[in-house]
Amino acid sequence: MRNASCSSFARKPLGVKVGRIAAYAVLILLAFCFLFPYLYLICTSFMTPEDLFEPGFHMLPIDDNGHLYLTFENYSNAMDSLRLATTFGITILICVVNTALNLLLNAMAGYALARFEFAGKKVVFPLILASMTIPGAIMTIPNLIICQFLGVIDTIGALILPFVMSIYNVFLMRQQFLGLSKDLEEAAEIDGANPFKVFFTICLPLVSPMLVVLGITTFMWNYNNFMWTLLAIPTNTDIYTLSRALGELVSAGSSDPNRYPQMLAGSVITSLPLVLIFFFLQRYILEGISLGGVKE
What we know:
globular, mainly alpha, 15 helices
């Protein structure tokens, strides 16, 4: 197979070869530009404060004898500062609950818009499309006011309630359901299945690829949600998420240079789960990008 591909490449015109080589060179350069900051973050997280602030550029911690050495104490201190076991458990709980509710409610809303006829449907969907143009930051203050009215500020409820629905996810699920044939649904209705049974046993399994993709992206978004936790959880340190705990560590590191390597180690620890998620599930993420363009 490799010999066949090599011979096929050898038979291509010179201009095609040069263009392909140039394209690969540009892609490799871009990949390096994106990866280098993260690699530098990992390398410097093993340095001591003295090595980190030594004049000149240093990619790896090397002593006076030219020997490589790693300072693992930065990671143990970062875990203590992050209260890793507690904050990680709370973060996973919030991400899982938000993702499950988001997928269920958005799928039901998308199915209703795709299959049911109801009063005001021709008005509701254009309003949904129009609301997608509103930047999410604009909704921060209204969400805070609603959470304050409900009395959930400084509780886990403030990290869940505002994010159980997503206009973008509703739109994508509607497009997915519109692309399904109605034959199976009509056959199930003839057999006496109610709309809920049709939805859960027939339609939902057929759109599982999109559910997987939206589940991954929703989980990752909730995992990275720092700004909202900063506003909605002002004082209750017992329910800090990893992103919020990392923010506190970054603030401490900016005022105390000795804690700077600890801050870098905390950044690596916090980002590692998402890196692993993307590494193992990138096929589904890329598939979701192509599924997002489903035609009505």
